Structures
1.
Amino acid sequence: MIQSFYDARARNELATVRGILDDGMIWREPDAGSEHTGELRGADSVIGMIQEALRLTNGTFTLRVTNAVAHCEQVVAFIDRSSTRDGKTIEGKEIAIYRIRDSKISEAHFNQDNLSHDEEF
């Protein structure tokens, strides 16, 4: 499911992404000073965040799963990320921790390797 989520994001298939997310989900990213970081609630907020990231980076925002470990209703995914904005490119790694309930992503928590890059970006 998590790989399907990232594959759909990569293809910009937001209807498919939306179908994988629970309506009442909680999405937590470190607060990098934008309205689309910190805690988001609801699948529509997550879709809005994805759309905004793609808009701000002219579609260059990419995430690639390099490894994942699943146990019961939790999945930990190791992610390589990259994006370009205003001629500046940032790359990094993050750990994404997902909770799956009723075959949907109900919670997501992210930890980046270098939050200062996101804050500058």
Note: Helices lie at 2-10, 14-20, 43-56, 115-120.
2.
Amino acid sequence: MFNGTTPDLVGNGVFSLVLTDTNGDVYSDGVDYAEFNQASGTNDYCYIERTTNSSIPDGGTVLVSFNYYGVGSAPVGLDLYA
């Protein structure tokens, strides 16, 4: 849930964000939200925040899809089968 323009932590090692509403409509990076990374030691934290002119309602629910890169060679992912 986005409140105001306070940044929210998405995670460490996260990239290629796609934000949608609960109907699947896609929000625009740089228009509706801003994505930025902040390094801390060996970690790279990803944050998102609503822009002041965002079409995302204050307190609105947003679905966040992203890719993740981890350290080492352990595979990361999720397979869904119908």
Note: The chain has a mean pLDDT of 78.
